[in-house]
Amino acid sequence: MMSSGVMWSTATKEGLIRHLPRLICVDTLGSSEALNVASSVSSADGASSTAAFTVNPTTRVFTEEGREVRPGSGEVGMVGLGGRMPLGYYKDEEKSAQTFRVIDGRRWSIPGDFATVDTNGTLRLLGRGSQCINTGGEKVYPEEVEEAIKTHASVLDAVCVGVPDERFGEAVVATVAPGPGAVIDEAAIIAHVKGQMAAYKAPRRVVTVASVGRAANGKVDYKRLRDLAMRELNAKVIADRGLIAP
Q1: Model pTM score
Q2: Domain made up of 132-240: CATH architecture
């Protein structure tokens, strides 16, 4: 599912295959606006890395200016699918124009997911642009950070959101659900993420929740969790200063 459903990590797929050696895991990337964008297959012969996909012949990645991303450049672009596609959204010309675009005379469906392209053509999904967190001029895609957090032994699930920050514009905050009997250590979670990726992507704060509230299809309400994180952090500031909440 295109940056909106459950994403199994490489370690999870490897664990499943160890228990069921004949199992074949197939990840598919797509949406109602763009079907069959890419896929990956994991089996006893090897598990594909998290969020890495083999694209189909009509998939491309474009910059915001409409230029195709060159494989191996490290440049971030938007995933687009050519070929057969919907005419548009019902009675919504503005949204249709944003999603279904004409580039170099050809029509593409570009729902808003961002990715890079490896030298060998592998697509590495970063996440939905609408959820991107802009912190200190750097763009952080929550899904990438979430996957890193979920590899910590104490974590059952995690969702990252951007909250207003006077210095950085937005700050990355993680809402984390602990595993059975586990206790979330904020400093340990932050250090764990910094050990796997650039420090600016790591959460500045960690809020413990009983559950991130995923729906049956794996989706989460980022706005609800953002509001929850802001309330919890504000309450902590008030408590630390010995003030009375308004």
Answers
A1: 0.79
A2: 2-Layer Sandwich (3.30)
